[in-house]
Design goal:
Helix 8 packs antiparallel against helix 9. It is globular, with a radius of gyration of 20 Å. Helix content is 36%, strand content 20%. The chain has one domain: BirA Bifunctional Protein, domain 2 (2-Layer Sandwich), CATH 3.30.930.10. By secondary structure, the protein is of the alpha+beta class. 41% of the residues are buried. Strands 1-5-6-13-12-11-10-7 form an 8-stranded mixed beta sheet. Strands 2-4-3 form a 3-stranded antiparallel beta sheet, with no helix packed on it. A two-stranded antiparallel ribbon has the order 8-9. It starts with 15 loop residues before the first helix and ends in a 21-residue tail after the last helix.
Length: 337
């Protein structure tokens, strides 16, 4: 691996914005960001899925809610009105499915309140879509999307990726898979055995650690779906995967650093959504409109979100996701430009 810019180039400094102009990594980054935008737009246009233009503020956050959440919301005061910077606008994509019968998508920023690290950003780009149908159909579309992006990398930027990652073998490896292997969360836990650093038991729900994800990628497949997580470990809006309401009808796609795509089927109607809110001990007040939407206009949909910088990290073989921003953003720090 031959990353040129490995000296913590994400750290704020007065000269960073000038220094990176001479770093090959950032020209490659711009090329790949452009590829994600143009290839994503083409992918959805070919399927008749419509792009939505949405605000970055919301009163109804999604990911940082519920018992199993490991994420924090970003609350701001906007002209005296408390609101949140969007962690995701997935709920609005669900709304968009009522206006666009083949589905809706966007590519937009996502804001999180926890600290960044080598694999996680405070502000990142999300490629998200919501589609009619169930989890299996959504998984098939995600695999087609991954192939579409990977093909673009090889067609347009193979030399640049080789210069950063050492080769394009990882991209070719993904493209060689017609479908990506799957295992349930329960099967993954059994495979990982008694390794205390692979699975965390929160007393009511369990989660995979980064070590657990990496072991699965090394020992099972370098591209792998994990499905049907413990329901209390995922947001309330995921449909139940069993009659006992223990599992979720969801899936995470692991490759590279670990989870890069999160996918899930939603509750169809208001009664299901209201029951899940109570199960997750989430107050219904902030989600009244969402419950009403499900009640008045029930619809069977599934959706997914891909962390763009995590995908870029995999493509470039880079070790620190914080480097993969033209303009880094750290919570509590003023950074120019």
């Amino acid at each position: 691996m031959t990353n040129e810019f490995t000296h913590g180039g994400w750290r704020p400094s007065q000269d960073r914005f000038l220094d990176i102009l001479d770093e090959p990594l950032y020209r490659r980054l711009v090329d790949l960001q452009d590829l994600v935008t143009t290839r994503t737009a083409g992918f959805w246009a070919a399927r008749g899925v419509k792009s939505l233009h949405l605000p970055i503020t919301t009163g109804t956050i999604s990911s940082p809610m519920g018992l199993g959440s490991d994420s924090l919301p970003v609350e701001i005061d906007l002209f005296g009105q408390p609101t949140f910077l969007a962690d995701s606008m997935q709920f609005m994509l669900e709304y968009g499915c009522r206006l666009s019968e083949l589905g809706a998508w966007y590519l937009m920023p996502s804001f999180r309140g926890e600290d960044c690290d080598e694999t996680h950003l405070n502000q990142f780009f999300h490629s998200e879509a919501e589609l009619p149908g169930g989890l299996d159909a959504c998984i098939e579309v995600v695999e087609a999307y991954m192939h579409h992006l990977a093909t673009g990398v090889l067609d347009l930027h193979a030399a640049a990726v080789t210069a950063s990652a050492g080769s394009t073998a990882h991209v070719e490896q993904m493209l060689a898979l017609d479908t990506f292997p799957r295992m349930t969360f329960e099967e993954a836990v059994r495979h990982l055995g008694t390794d205390p650093h692979a699975v965390t038991d929160h007393g009511g729900w369990r989660t995979l650690t980064r070590r657990g994800e990496q072991r699965l990628l090394e020992e099972v497949s370098p591209v792998l779906w994990i499905t049907h997580y413990d329901h209390l470990s995922v947001p309330f809006y995921q449909a139940y995967g069993d009659t006992g309401q223990r599992t979720a009808r969801n899936a995470d796609l692991l490759f590279g650093l670990g989870e890069i795509v999160g996918c899930g089927e939603r509750h169809v109607n208001g009664a299901q959504t209201r029951a899940a809110l109570a199960h997750h001990e989430v107050p219904e007040s902030a989600y009244e409109w969402y419950v009403r939407l499900k009640q008045e206009r029930p619809m069977h949909t599934s959706g997914f979100g891909m962390g763009v910088e995590r995908w870029l990290m995999w493509v470039l073989g880079h070790k620190d996701i914080r480097d993969l921003q033209l303009a880094p953003r750290l919570n509590g720090v003023t950074i120019l430009p």
